[in-house]
Design brief:
five-stranded antiparallel sheet; 173 residues; alpha+beta; 40% helix
Length: 173
């Protein structure tokens, strides 16, 4: 009996050591998951910023007949760290100009002047997430898209980037 005195103390200490290690492991896993979640949120924000660049290029072409490159920036709501997304959009460049099946069906009606075509446009948007000072890049995403519009009238302004290799180089097709 005398030899077993203090054995409960050792068992209790071993149990505390095991529980402490288990707690540390769980806290490290939780910290890693929080970092992964934060990184995923940043990547999603940059992706959707680039996607909005594609949408603005399409809207500008459809509404304003503007096919030129443009850039814009968005700023997060003020919080602990102020971040912004800078989005650069390539020209909305026509890559395929072909007869329009829809237009052929309607030739006798509204589209009888045969000026309407099916035109596929290429556009690339690059979004960069930075701090407000614009020196620290947190994330970057490049999205290239092909947008088909039919029926559509061919616009001479849309073909202007062919004379500027720097603008054509921005397209990722």
């Amino acid at each position: 009996m005398n030899r077993q005195q203090g054995s409960a103390y050792i068992i209790a200490l071993l149990a505390l050591v095991v529980l402490t290690m288990l707690g540390l492991a769980v806290s490290l896993v939780t910290q890693s998951e929080m970092q992964v979640g934060a990184n995923e949120r940043v990547v999603n924000r940059v992706f959707y910023a680039a996607d909005s660049g594609i949408a603005t290029a399409t809207a500008r072409a459809l509404v304003e007949s503007s096919y030129t490159a443009h850039a814009f920036s968005t700023q997060d709501k003020p919080g602990i760290v102020i971040m912004q997304n800078e989005v650069r959009v390539s020209p909305f460049y026509p890559i395929l100009d072909s007869p329009c099946n829809l237009c052929e069906i309607n030739n006798a009606g509204t589209y009888s002047e045969k000026a309407y075509r099916k035109i596929n446009h290429a556009v690339t948007a690059t979004a960069v997430r930075t701090g407000l000072d614009s020196t620290t890049t947190v994330a970057q995403k490049i999205i290239a898209a092909m947008v088909e519009v039919q029926p559509w009238k061919a616009n001479v302004e849309a073909y202007a980037p062919i004379n500027d290799p720097a603008q054509l180089e921005v397209l990722r097709f």
